[in-house]
Design a protein that fits this description.
The protein is built from two helices and seven strands. The protein is an alpha+beta fold and about 140 residues long. It has a single domain, classed as Hotdog Thioesterase (Thiol Ester Dehydrase, Chain A), CATH 3.10.129. A seven-stranded antiparallel beta sheet has the order 1-2-3-5-6-7-4. The two termini are about 25 Å apart.
C-alpha cells in the first residue's frame, strides 16, 4: 500500500517543508522504501545558499525509519518519539544531494529492535548510484501526546 505526502506527514512530527518524503512505495515488518523529490525544493529547510549537502541524506533516511516505526507498530499502539542515538559506517558518496536531478530512493531495513530501540541499515540513492548509506540506532523514548 502506497502512502503519499499528506498521509506521511500525519504519521511523523515533521510538518510542512520539513516533511522530506513524498511517497512510501512499499513496506513490510522489516523494511521500507520511499521516494522523494524534496532535495530539489527551494524551500527545503536543510538547504543552504550553496545547495543541499550530501550529509542531509541522513535526515531523509531518519524520516523513513520514523514512518516505518509507525507503520510496523502494533495496531492501537501510541506513537512514541524516536531519537537517533548513533550512526555507524556512514558513507557519503556525493557532496550535494541537489545535483541529483531525479527522484531519491530512500530505503531502511530494520535489523533488530524492541519497544525501546531499533537498529536500521539505510541507503539513499538516485538512479543507479548510491549517495549515502550506513546504520543507525534509534531510541524510542516517551509517548507523544
Amino acid at each position: 500500500m502506497q502512502l503519499y505526502r499528506q498521509q506521511i506527514a500525519a504519521l511523523i512530527p515533521h510538518a510542512g517543508s520539513m516533511c522530506l518524503l513524498d511517497t512510501v512505495l512499499d513496506w513490510d515488518e522489516g523494511s521500507i522504501r520511499c521516494i522523494s523529490r524534496r532535495h530539489l525544493a527551494k524551500d527545503n529547510p536543510l538547504r543552504w545558499a550553496s545547495g543541499l549537502g550530501g550529509i542531509c541524506g541522513l535526515e531523509f533516511a531518519a524520516q523513513a525509519m520514523a514512518i516505518h516505526g509507525r507503520l510496523a507498530a502494533p495496531a492501537g499502539a501510541a506513537p512514541s518519539a524516536g531519537y537517533l542515538a548513533s550512526v555507524r559506517e556512514m558513507l557519503c558518496h556525493e557532496r550535494r544531494l541537489d545535483h541529483c536531478g531525479g527522484e531519491l530512493l530512500v530505503c531502511a531495513d530494520r535489523l533488530a529492535g524492541d519497544e525501546r530501540q531499533a537498529l536500521y541499515r539505510f541507503a539513499v540513492s538516485c538512479g543507479v548510484g548510491e549517495l549515502l548509506s550506513g546504520r543507525a540506532a534509534v531510541l524510542l523514548h516517551a509517548a507523544v501526546p
